[in-house]
Amino acid sequence: MIDKMCQNIVKQMQKQMPEIDDEKAEIILYGIQLLLGEVPKMIILFALGFVLGIGWYTLIAFIAIMPYRAASGGFHLKSHLGCILGTSAFYYGNVYLSKFILLSSIQKYSLIIGALILGIIMVHLYAPADTESVPIISKNERRKKKILSYITLIVTLIVATIIQDNIISNIFIFGVIIQSTMISKIAYKITKNEYGYEVYQKQTIN
Length: 206
Description:
By secondary structure, the chain is mainly alpha-helical. It has nine helices and no strands. It starts with a helix and ends with a helix.
């Protein structure tokens, strides 16, 4: 319902302001969806995180992976309840893994290299991973987001390398690994999603 409402708002804006092309409309739609859909989810996420005693780590996990996640994309669950549960599992799972897994220096740097290789492969194959509801149609926009995906991937892992605190460093590393898998074809099939750009291309051909 929220997605349709956001799309209707953007359509009305385009009618009133013809200068808003499809590329600008995509950006506006993303911003409105973030405001109406994501902000309430984040409030619930952080509030429950503090109740569970991991609020600050949850906030760090969100900030750590947000740039890479925003650039590379990922699947969306169909319902808002499912999305809240999935988002919570993503961040809380990362935090709990990071708290209970102690890595030696060799293990840490090996895992960082593995996360980098995985990320590069996933970004090359699938980023930006869009959805049917918010397809990224513009080739220029897709190219920019792919480049940003590489940049944010590398920067995030550089930060993980520098940070000495084991838990926080792990949050960055595990966050990259989880996010990289979330844009994969397998993740999309499991969650019954399709890449919006591929759907658009099929419709155009037909």
